[in-house]
Amino acid sequence: MRATSSVIVGRDAEVGLLDQALDSAGRGAGRAVFLVGEAGIGKSRLAGECALRAYDRDMPVLRGRATSTGLVVPFRPLVEALSSRFRAAGAPNDPELDPYRPALAGLVPEWRSGTAAPGYTISLVELAEALLRLLAVLGRERGCVILLEDLHDSDTETIAVVEYVADNVAGLPVLLVGTLRPDPGPALDLALAAELRNTAALRELTPLDETAVRDMVEACLDAGPGEVPPAAHRHLAQRAGGNPYLVEVLLADLLDTGRLSRAEGGWRIADQGGASVPTGAVRSWARRLSRLDEPVRELLLLAATLGGRFSVEALRAVTGLDDRALFAHLRSASEVGIIAPDGAAHDHYTFRHVLTADALRASLPPAEQAALARRAATAIEESAGELTGEQRQLVATLRLAAGDKVTASRQFAQVGQELLDAGASGSAAVLLERARGLAADEDREAITVHLAIAEAESGRLDAASALLDDLPPAPAGTRAAQERAQAHTQVAWVATMAEQQQEAHRRIRAARALLGTAPRPEQEAALVVVEGHLALLPEPDGARDSRHGLPDSAPTPADRRRLEEAERSAQAAALTAEERGRPVVACRAWQLLALLSRARGFDEADACLVRMLEVAEKHRLAPCRAEALVRLGTNAFMRTGEATSLETARAAAQELGHLALLQTTDGLLAMQSVLGARWDRAREIVERSLEASARLQNLSAHRYLLLVDATLAAHQGHAREQDRALARFRRAGGEESMLVPLQRGLCQAMGALMAEDRPRATAELDAALAWERRHPSFFYLSGRYGLRPLLRALDGDADSRDIHQEALASPGGQLAWNRMFLSLTDAVLRGRAGDPDGARHAVAEAARSAALFPQAWHLALRLTAEGALADSWGEPVAWLRTAEEYFHEAGVQPVAGACRALMRQAGVSVPQRRGGHERIPAELRTAGVTPREYEVFVLLAERPGNQQIAQRLCISPRTVEKHMASLMAKTGSADRSALCKLSADRAEDQGRPGAARPVTPA
Description:
This protein has 48 helices and ten strands. The strands form three sheets. It has a five-stranded parallel beta sheet with strand order 2-3-4-1-5, sandwiched between helices. Helix 31 runs parallel beside helix 33. It is globular.
């Protein structure tokens, strides 16, 4: 007879917590809840109750469980959770998920075909962000629940993803519920840390008290109060220790043996008789097994040897039974409630509780347990051809149970290496650590080397360094030394990408010492590529000053030689890596060369990137291909101001599902939008990507997006927003990054100009130049090659012509943004030299960029007009009118006011402005008519021409044309005549005599 409770008892507080969390998720306020308790304490029952209550609310539920077999299977709970939903409801096809499908393809089988390119490993944080977006889409209407059970058995990749989701679920319609035992390990560390950060609620399930046990027993027996004898309650309460699972097991034993039976008017318990009383679950299960048929009993013992979850294939191999007999025995075991089909995998079964398998194994003497494990391992090895990773882990576990540590270690190590090659570095580290602890002396060092690489690639650089430092010395040039050198090189690359310069240098020195004086060409190539990328990182000023012995030191000849040598070495490394079959190293080398060669021109830089693209496509390296496209698109944007190539590169990154690269590209597109004065577009990109980049820990993209945010505010003249964004930029380490020249020149100098603070703008540009002279710099929009020469020329500096010529001769001077400023610098210098025709020609040349960079163009006109007024050339008044109109409409009053002041200095009558919104009739205000458009509208009652309107309002005829087009669209007028009639009718309705008068600018 089965004895299971149909209700939950003693957990009212926990059920209430889950109810509140479900309600919050339904309102879009996501939460994470972790239920912690020993095996059998009722965690899964609560998870099931949560699922039922979610179903009652019509909320999607995703439910997965970690394997209890000890096998390391990356993302198993997540795969099972998603499958549990999509198997019945199908995978969602929301367009919002398109960028995340490749990242999720490893978890959602329906999205695997044609998504992620071969060889690309999605990072854990990218996968976690993609999962978070998927859950948000599923919960958009009513909220959703993801239940992950037995996290203590999870792989490290799953733990990392769960931590990310828990930390970022607030504000999303998602409830995350995790269950785990209180055993020390990553899962418990995660739950405790999340509770400490207030990102999750943690509830530890305590044993049931006697009252709750009594209620549970009565529920199991469907008995009323007082029908079960107190002696039975005491028996179960004492022996089960308040554990609901043990209550059920011991109750089932009482029923099976007939010691507890139904009697007239209730239940009756027989005298216990000391020796026959089970003292725990092991004895209870031993007694239950003894009552089963021999074949079923043997099958269950063999199944328990395989773990709490086992495959039919493995059990068939171990038992040798044919399918008919095998499934007959499985049915018998299922009918008595010991095992059940695994809902997540059709060819697997699970024990009803993990304690069941443990108890069955413990019922056997140790020697018999070892013999069964040895028999099972041999049968699996003989029945399979090439073992899968999961099968190999099972064999290793069985060999270890049989006492063969060395064989187990080698099997674990092989699977760990395979997982490392596949990019699952966290799981690889777990298995390699396990293998290292079991390894024979002759195997331990090789396993340690691979473990160090796995730790580094998992982000644990300190652990990787400690492992490598603890290895005994190896003679230079030996095979062991070469393997270690490769590990040092890989750890150095990880440290360089993490901007940990000292650690990277340490690893490089160690690798060179191990390789000796004559490393193989491909080994040298890998090292020099890391050294080259390391050379590009800005050295802290304090370290630099102490090294050179001078404050604010300029580049020394040694610095220049270092970069020149890095470039020569990278060139050789790229060719060597291609010849020696190291395409990833080759791509990294060409990427480095593309940056270094910018100093000679963007054509050469593009040639390096094209070569990188060719190598990536030849070897199907999708991430390298996308990186090359992004960098080519960046160069094209800088040269032309257009973003077409960059948009194409973004599509490639999105197709690949490379979220980090996608965020980098978004940052570049946002900056292009800022330069093009497309404020709304820039803001939309920043808002979409900024917080996501922080969650992904994509530091370089996050810093750049923060700088874009500050630059967006600066170019609009929003000083407070600029200061707030720059404060965030500094907190993210922006002022220790390569972005400092852009921060000082493109952001802060432009912000100063929007505030009409010329001295501060000049100081910022000078600071940007000083930084570039102290550090390697490959940014060309810092003002050095455009804005700074113009301000120097306007200030009348004696060396302004030399500064202009130097900028003009540099690759940076050929970029569209800089060319506009340099052409106007040329105009100022020519006008001052008495060449007005040449000056006008230079202005016309600069005007070609006006449509690309409207804000910068009007600022440049305002600046250039100063020089034209002083030296009597060009059309400074017309330029100032155009600039004044632009900045007035943009709300940048300091610049608009400066334009009006300069026009007055030129003797031009300039009316003051005021807002004018209150003068616009409600109907026109509702239609979106602006104050300036209304001024034009009022004048139309007199049917003037565009030239007349332009003169009266101090704006350009072209601006009048734009206002006319906007007015016709907003008022629904078919043509100009209809618009003029509407104006006249409006004037008449307002009771004004004669023709309508314009709003008088004050």
